[in-house]
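pinging the channel bc i need a second pair of eyes. not urgent but kinda urgent?? the chain im working w is below, pasted from the shared doc
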Amino acid sequence: MWHNNLSVARVYTSHHSQNCYAIVSGVSGWKKVKTGAADGVTNVHIALSAAQANGRKVDVYIVSNQIERVTLR
């Protein structure tokens, strides 16, 4: 389900492969970025971090409590 025009409050990553989480306004709790493709996790992380660092909004597509897609507004 798409959640539109939201702010990114926090982004978390670690040294572990494909380990990225975010807190997005209007969506409860930390959401894990869906794993399975290292480039995909990196791309979503970059978009979330850019939004958080620059005060931009995002649209996030969440499936099974994981962020699967992001569009940067």
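so The first helix runs from residue 38 to 54. and The mean pLDDT is 97. — does that match what u expected or am i reading it wrong
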